[in-house]
Amino acid sequence: MAPERSTGNRIGAEDIRRRKGGVPIVCLTAYTYPIARMLDPHVDLLLVGDSVAMVLHGHATTLGASLEMMIAHGQAVMRGSAKACVVVDMPAGSYEVSVAQAVASARLIIGETGCQAVKLEGGVDMAAQIAAIVAEGIPVMGHIGLQPQSVDKDGGYKIKGRSRENIAALFRDAEAVEKTGAFSVVIEGTVEAVASDLPRHIAIPTIGIGASGDCDGQILVVDDMIGMTVDRVPKFVKEYAKLRDTIADAAARYADEVRSRAFPGPDHVFSAASGKDQA
Ligand code: KIV
């Protein structure tokens, strides 16, 4: 499907890789056309995260995401952006079973959306999948530390890097992702002292979320960042706006005006005299 706003001037995965240790890489999630249009001028990378299942579709976890869902939102974000590197998440169940499944799903996402790269969760355990997708010429972003797709296996959203064994496992995961040829890696929900060491340990950019300011870039879920999240807002989020309140206020004023017949007013109806045919 043609990504209408896609131009030849997009930031690519290799451009992101080269930003290691430089000016921090600005990343946000995006799921829709209008949000992509608004964010595109300001960010380096837009992630069509599987968080879309929770944020826009009301699922309890990201396990509610499907390939179809990720592709539809990936297409919308590609249509709404012209500059950012667009990365689409591989949903749970689309890559873990085998290398062949992972490659087929990655190809489908790239083919249907025209996005620049895919992301998947896992370190040592998913190294074969990442390497195989990279060998197909498809750039991959890794995701280590807290992995939301493992919420059931982990018994909740548990911060990583609290024990010696877990810290060692995180370093092994980071090394494994780097070795597979991934162009960058998200580090999520990890003790700051550990997350600030990881960027020095590997040569690919680290993108932090609930991690450390020492990462090579930062990412937030856009709805969290603009204050649209209606359920629990995680501790690591900074709300740069409070759109929840703005929307509730607009809805309340609209409801009042409809009930009192103040809306629609003369400016919002078509008079017979104006002769205008366009809404
Ligand atoms: O799905 C998502 O939004 C993510 C980010 C939080 C990194 O994976």
Number of strands: 8
Order of helices and strands: HEHEHHEHEHEHHEHHEEHH
Helix content: 25-40%
Question: What is the overall pLDDT average?
Answer: 95
Strand content range: 5-15%
What's the N-to-C terminus distance? 30 Å
Which segments are poorly predicted (pLDDT under 50) over 5 or more consecutive residues?
1-6
How large, in whole angstroms, is the Cα Rg? Answer: 21 Å
The largest β sheet comes out as:
8 strands, parallel, barrel
What global shape is seen?
Answer: globular
As laid out across the biggest beta sheet, the strand order is 1-2-3-4-5-6-7-8
SS class: alpha/beta
Bound molecules: 3-methyl-2-oxobutanoic acid
Q: In DSSP terms, counting alpha (H) and pi (I) runs of 4 or more, how many helices?
A: 12
Note down, in words, how this protein is organized.
This protein is of the alpha/beta class. The chain is built from twelve helices and eight strands. Helix 2 packs across helix 4, helix 4 runs parallel beside helix 5 (99-113) and helix 5 (99-113) packs across helix 6. The protein is globular, with a radius of gyration of 21 Å. The chain binds 3-methyl-2-oxobutanoic acid.
